[in-house]
Amino acid sequence: MSGELSLNINIKEPRWDQGTFMGRAKHFFMVTDPRTVLLSSETLDEARDIVESYRAGIIKPGLTEDELWRAKYVYDSAFHPDTGEKMFVIGRMSAQVPMNMTITGCMLTFYRTTPAVVFWQWVNQSFNAVVNYTNRSGDAPITVNQLGAAYVSATTGAVVTALSLKALASRLPPIVSRFVPFAAVAAANCINIPFMRQRELKFGIPITDENGNRLGESANAAQQAIAQVVVSRIGMAVPAMAIPPVIMNALEKKAFMKRFPVLNAPVQVALVGLCLVFATPLCCALFPQKSSMSVSGLEKELQERIRETSPGTTRVYFNKGL
Question: Least crowded by CB within 10 Å, which of 91, 113, 264, 282?
Fold first, then answer.
């Protein structure tokens, strides 16, 4: 019965303790579950209605606690936490595994020629631009010019890094060449994410006290948030771009791979997918989604304002983005 479900369940927060790595990992295994990409708009809207009704104190008849949490995670997978807008499907974290396994698998397979390197780095950075924009922190809009500058800068950085390392690696053992895409992706992440979120660095992201009361916007908080996201993104790429090359280097010497070279790309994509299923949620879990910092780490003017309006506040909280 609807009366059996308590209204005291805090669905504004994840189901598991975000103060521990395991709690965050369980949370992100749900958030990055690729099956939610296949859900219809009607299912997503139904989950939103359940969540928003519950927050308003209205419980759908017959709703169980597990169904409520399921609706909450479906809602979180498709709607932006700050703006509430439905996110573009390939920009959602639940699309990370299927999209990245395809793109990364192809980058690791087709790395021997310059046109292939340029094409797949361009595809990867185009995808990253969509993801970074979709998962930006805060509710501040980004202009078309800022979006274009970030996209061009990251793509150029990735291509230049990949081609430079490819030329350098040509004089080294073949196995070294296989790691060129990873170095390019790592360099591009360091460029793409800050550029895509440059408005946050300039104007700040919303910060709140522990009760969710908004205290202002902080660029210092944005710097911490973006640094954490860069580390997580590079961490996600490590297993997927470091393990398959070693395995493929050994497999390509086998008779069956020489006999059926067409298997190269599918096997590589499958290996990358296996790595990403675990690496994506585990690296998202490296830092709490609701990140925090001491008031003393904020801008001086903001510190003074918080001490005047909320003297008991010593730490502030913010969505770091993904």
Answer: 113
